[in-house]
TrEMBL record:
This is DNA helicase IV. Coiled coil: none annotated. It comes from the Bacteria. The lineage of its organism: Bacteria, Bacillati, Actinomycetota, Actinomycetes, Micromonosporales. Keywords: ATP-binding, Helicase, Hydrolase, Nucleotide-binding.
Length: 760
């Protein structure tokens, strides 16, 4: 219980902080209004104004986002200093009022213990409601405390337990007030290289991944804001579930995407059977697609006769092969190499035309008049060029060339390939051993149309790499834009050089070098580009070749080898954080080790961090899960629970009507919380019909009180109460069914029911 005077003291400091926040907000609001009023004028002025409006609006949104829980902690240091910790840093004119939780000085708040106090004598958790302090929770970190308490593993235990036992809302919350030491180490790890975070269900992997994004953006803002941070999650429902966390930490410049979103212009929502997705995800698809592209670089199997303006021209394999070899040997991608092939074929055809129309029948002086030209053909080089140009424009010739070496788009290539059994079979038979069996090719076969599946996306991306996009228009536009920026930057430098030092009055400013002294025009142009109105995340979402500053992958165990190739292309620096749990994957063909995933890209140069404590699942449910799965898969070792809920899981077997009654009871007992029924795909329709209170569908709204999900949909989510239907069917339903059951059983934060349906 906090004394009234202590509460009052904290309240008065908190009021000062909020007062300052209000001032800052008012200042930004004024600047925003002023920027909006500014006239457009030249394109430069307009773009400057838009950038200013964007920057001010963004800052205002950040201030609004931190209104709740602005300040949540205090550290008293041995040297007498007192630091308040909060969501952002706030300064008064002469002193810091609030320290950003990501600042190095705030770190002891998360890692100090009685044995290793990091100079801290008191750590205080401050609970607020609105702008009022409602409770304080103090930990004294001195040697006496160390002697009596030992080195406790949990920091801020009361605040932590209160966060963990609060009802769920269908949206993930940030954990900034109660980050634990093992989590803090991951959040603040260096950004370079690949960091793998392995941990069982509920160990906070997702929370840590999101807080790490916020930490990296804060600490390395210069490097990261221009290139952006990408966070990849398994599906749209999951992204919605986590979507509030970064905004609540005042970070907005992050692109959240599923693997199916990573090919701009395509929304991959087509569903397809797991075995089909598994084939598409195999590494062998790289060769398969390369073979499919080569298969589109043809020569006539039989000599072709092409009718050009009533005259026949012949095209044989021998005519075309040298051009094809030359085009392939150029090392250019399919579309870029096409002109080499086209030129070669046109030369062959032009020679035939020239032979016909330019041949001089008397060139060798058959009549002995000694007046022959002594050249067999009357046409010169320019005549031949005209013939080539005519042929190039001739629709019949163009159609023939298109047949042999077509200009291809990734979508066109894949559509044609899936649609033609013969093309699938030819691509599969490349090399000594077939890449796919006939049955696997049959699984890939499908008619054109119907949209793309998430597993198609890495294949489209691979195809784009093989084909080379025709990006001439985009490159020309980019060059024009750069020239514009350069001219503008030069103008800025001329003006600043002209005004050099005249306006500088106070000494501090005089010490700042003039912009023209430190920056060339092209550097400044780059800077201006970075401050484009659209954020890096927004621009990245529309650019397939965008390279991110850092990539974070959640549920990383689910990604296929082809998806990894795509992601690695988006992050050549390999500055990545991958979080996941190999024991939770239900994907066919999933990796058995992180080494297997990463060795093609970074060999053994990656770091592993492990999270060992489960914050979500109470001890009773963890113990039940351990018992149920110990024989099914002894490799599954659930993490250590941090608390018990005092409620044992229930088990029942019965008819559908009994299940309905039990689920209805659980919904009634929920209070403010959320419930999920997790059932095998084959049971979904019957359960949806029998339980209309459950929200169903491919992407159900998790803010609804009760939802019906498959295991795949439930991955990464959590609910106060979970009822798992037909556990045995889940376990035996797929080769990795034990993993699926593990996922399902570890979703609840309070109550678990396990129900086996009897046949009707
Ligand atoms: N330090 C913490 N303070 C408060 N809550 C925490 C903390 N760490 C984790 N949690 C909570 O525990 C729950 C599980 O976290 P999270 O979803 O990140 O786990 P996970 O390891 O990603 O789980 P899964 O593997 O099942 O997807 C969340 O509600 C999260 O907010």
């Amino acid at each position: 219980m906090s004394s009234l005077s202590t509460l009052a003291e904290e309240q008065s400091h908190l009021s000062v902080i909020y007062g300052r926040l209000d001032e800052l907000r008012a200042q930004v609001r004024d600047r925003l209004a002023e920027a909006r009023r500014r006239g457009g004028g030249t394109p430069e002025a307009r773009s400057q104004r838009d950038a200013a409006v964007h920057a001010h609006a963004d800052r205002l949104a950040r201030y609004d986002a931190v209104e709740h829980g602005l300040c949540f902690g205090r550290l008293d240091m041995r040297d007498g200093e007192r630091l308040h910790i909060g969501r952002i840093g706030i300064h008064d004119t002469d002193r810091p009022l609030l320290l950003d939780w990501r600042a190095p000085a705030a770190r002891p708040f998360y890692v100090a213990t009685a044995v290793t106090p990091h100079g801290v004598t008191l750590r205080r958790h401050i609970r607020t409601r609105g702008r009022a302090v409602v409770e304080l929770d103090d930990e004294i970190l001195d040697l006496d405390a160390a002697a009596t308490a030992g080195d406790r593993t949990l920091t801020g235990e009361a605040a932590l337990l209160s966060a963990l036992t609060a009802g769920r809302t269908g949206r993930m919350r940030d954990i900034v007030e109660t980050i634990q030491a093992e989590q803090d180490r991951v959040i603040r790890a260096e950004p370079g290289g690949v960091l793998v975070v392995q941990g069982g269900p509920g160990t906070g992997k997702t929370a840590v991944a999101l807080h790490r994004a916020a930490y990296l953006l804060y600490t390395y803002r210069e490097q990261l804001s221009a290139r952006g941070v990408l966070i990849v999650g398994p599906n749209a429902t999951f992204l919605r579930y986590i979507s509030q966390v970064l905004p609540s930490l005042a970070e907005t410049g992050v692109l959240l995407a599923t693997p199916g979103d990573l090919y701009p212009g395509i929304t991959a929502r087509r569903s397809e059977p797991a075995p089909v997705a598994e084939i598409k995800g195999r590494a062998v698809m790289v060769e398969f697609l390369a073979a499919a592209v080569r298969d589109r670089q043809r020569v006539p199997a039989e000599p072709w006769e092409i009718d050009v303006d009533g005259h026949p021209l012949r095209l044989t394999a021998a005519d075309c092969e040298p051009s094809r070899d030359r085009a392939r040997a150029s090392g250019l991608r399919h579309n870029a190499a096409r002109p080499i092939f086209v030129t070669g074929v046109l030369d062959v055809l032009a020679a035939q035309v020239a032979d016909r129309i330019g041949a001089d029948p008397f060139w060798d002086d058959p009549l002995g008049a000694d007046d022959a030209l002594a050249t067999p053909n009357l046409l010169d080089e320019s005549d031949r060029a005209d013939i080539r140009a005519d042929l190039a424009a001739n629709p019949v010739v163009r159609a023939a060339i298109d047949e042999l070496w077509p200009q291809l788009t990734p979508a066109g290539l894949l559509t044609d390939l899936y649609a033609a059994r013969t093309a699938l079979a030819r691509a599969a038979r490349t090399g000594a051993t077939p890449l796919l069996t006939a049955a696997e090719c049959e699984l890939l076969h499908r008619a054109p149309g119907g949209g793309w599946s998430p597993a198609d996306v890495p294949l489209l991306d691979e195809a784009a790499e093989l084909l080379g996009e025709d990006d001439r228009a985009a490159r020309a536009a980019a060059a024009r834009e750069r020239a514009r920026r350069l001219a503008y930057a030069q103008g800025v430098l001329d003006i600043t050089a002209g005004s050099k030092s005249y306006e500088l009055e106070d000494d501090d400013e005089a010490a700042i070098p003039n912009i023209a002294d430190v920056m060339e025009a092209d550097m400044l142009a780059e800077r201006l580009a970075e401050r484009e109105v659209r954020s890096a995340a927004e621009r990245a979402a529309t650019d397939r070749e965008w390279v991110f500053g850092h990539v974070i992958v959640d549920e990383a165990q689910e990604l296929s080898p082809m998806a990894w190739r795509l992601l690695m292309r988006r992050c050549p620096s390999r500055s990545m954080t991958l979080v996941g749990d190999l024991a939770q994957t239900g994907a066919l063909g999933a990796p058995s080790s992180w080494s297997q995933v990463l060795s093609p890209y970074v060999a053994e140069r990656w770091r592993l961090a492990e999270l060992t404590v489960s914050y979500r699942t109470p001890a009773e449910i963890m113990e039940y899960t351990r018992r149920l799965l110990s024989t099914a898969d002894p490799a599954i070792v659930p993490p250590q629970p941090v608390r018990s809920a005092g409620v044992e899981p229930w088990e029942a077997t019965g008819a559908l009507s009994e299940l309905v009654a039990r689920v209805t009871y659980e919904i009634d007992a929920l209070g403010d919380g959320r419930l999920a029924v997790i059932a095998p795909a084959g049971r979904q329709a019957a359960l949806a019909a029998a339980l209309p209170a459950l929200t169903t569908g491919p992407s159900p709204d998790l803010e609804d009180r009760a939802v019906l999900l498959t295991v795949a949909q439930a991955k990464g989510l959590e609910f106060d109460t979970v009822v798992v239907v037909d556990p045995e069917r889940v376990r035996t339903g797929s080769p990795r069914g034990a993993n699926d059951l593990y996922v399902a059983l570890t979703r609840p934060t309070r109550r678990l029911g396990v129900f086996t349906l009897l046949p009707d």
